[in-house]
Amino acid sequence: MKQNLKNILISLVLFTLIIFSCEKQKENTEIILKNNLDIARADEPVTIKKSALSLPYDQFIIIDEEGLLVPFQKDDLNGDQQWDELALVLDFMPQQQRKLYIKAQDSLPVFKATTNVRLGKSPERNGTFTDVVFEKRDKKHLPQSQPPLYQMEGVSWENDKVGFRTYFDSRNGKDIWGKKTPELVLDWVGTKGNYHEMDWWGMDILKVGNSLGAGALAMEKEQQLYRLGETEDAIYEMVSEGPARTKFRLHYKGWQVDDHTYNLTEEITLWKGQYCYESQVTLTDTVTSNLVTGIVNMDAKELYVDTLDENYAMLYTHDIQSLNKDHLGMGLIVPKTYFNGYGETAADAASISSTYFCKLKPNGQEPVKFYFFAGWEVTDSLFSHKAGFEKMLKENSLKLNNPIQIEIHQ
Q1: Mean pLDDT of 104-128
Q2: Which of 18, 135, 294, 406 has a CB 3.0–4.6 Å from the CB of 236, allowing a cystine?
Q3: pLDDT the model gives residue 27
């Protein structure tokens, strides 16, 4: 009898410890983040895979050491209606370690969006545009057709620092929005007024013409460049937008390059507080030729090239080259895994003109990656001088080489 009672007591104690342990895990999933650099890092991107967390709940908040809410977003990356990755942005002092805690909570806050992607469509072509999250481009859609089918001619994306757009037609060029405000404005830009003229929020600041503009794509084959232009299909797919980042994909099928046809997907990501977007280009076919991206050089007098370190190469321009006739810096940072040289096209070249281009060597089925930067002096006086734009680029390369270290305790 005494032995049975003893066994019951032991079982109760063990059960209590298990419950306590589960509750402790539920309340105290701890994430330790470490900046290993001797520089401050403002608006530093952090991503954490859901698979690394093993959370016993799906609704939660994130707080820091002081108990303050940390804005975050849960992104569904594969379209299965389940989130796959946490995305958040944090500030770090030099060599700072920060702790975050994930806590279960049914009542969830709504965080202010600081990034945005938009494809406004007007089927009736009446000046009223609806934001769509998926769009297959009509093969008959012509560039610069009027009245416009697409607001701002295609997909636009922005954060609190800068904006970009890509023409959703056979040009497939990329352009830059110069911003004077951290507010998100591209939901209505292009519905009234002339965005090529200065407004309270900023303006379109780049003349693209027949160039690759701000990071558009091409392919080099036998020393000839082929623009990613007319394709059998072109599809826009919005993935996520929110307080940390915007992510979307452009799918192209039937890209004719000489005697071969390619399919590719470009995934573009823009984080809060950054002056660049990240492009990851995936080709469905084995490619021995170079992919190409570039920077328009209609008004730039010189291309600056820096191999930086063993991991990254940098190409950039800085000049009075905005449509506002003031200083604009544009740059590419490319992992050396893909970097395969650079060149320049003539101002009168038929296919792609007035472009400093960067050759990107595909690495099997792995996505080819690059970062395109834009720094306008009206946004930040740092960019009124070449040295300031170069400093920003080099700091970003240093950060890419030294990502925030993540430890998870649960």
Answers
A1: 94
A2: 135
A3: 56
Q: Would you state the structure tokens that stand for residue 343, as one six-digit string?
A: 């060149």
* Residue-wise burial string across 163-179, b where 16 or more C-beta atoms lie within 10 A, e elsewhere: bbbbbbbbbbbbbbbbb
Asked if the structure places residue 265 within a domain, the reply is yes
Q: Which domain, by its residues, includes 278?
A: 116-401
What global pTM score does this model have?
0.92
Strands (E), 111-244: 116-118, 120-121, 130-131, 134-136, 154-158, 162-167, 174-179, 202-204, 214-221, 224-227, 233-240
What is the spatial distance between Cα 145 and Cα 166, in angstroms, rounded to a whole number?
Answer: 15
- Which of 302, 375, 300, 294 lies closest to 341, judged by CA? 294
* Residue 18 pLDDT class (50, 70, 90 cuts): very low
The residues that bridge with 355 in the sheet, in sequence order, are 296
Question: pLDDT exceeding 70 applies to what percent of the chain?
Answer: 93
d(CA 146, CA 366): 40
Q: What are phi and psi of 3, to 5 degrees?
A: -65, -40
pLDDT tens digit sequence for 325-360: 999 999 999 999 999 999 999 999 988 999 999 999
- Cα separation, 21 vs 14, in Å, equals 10
163/269 same-domain check: yes
Helix (DSSP H) and strand (DSSP E) numbers for the chain: 2, 28
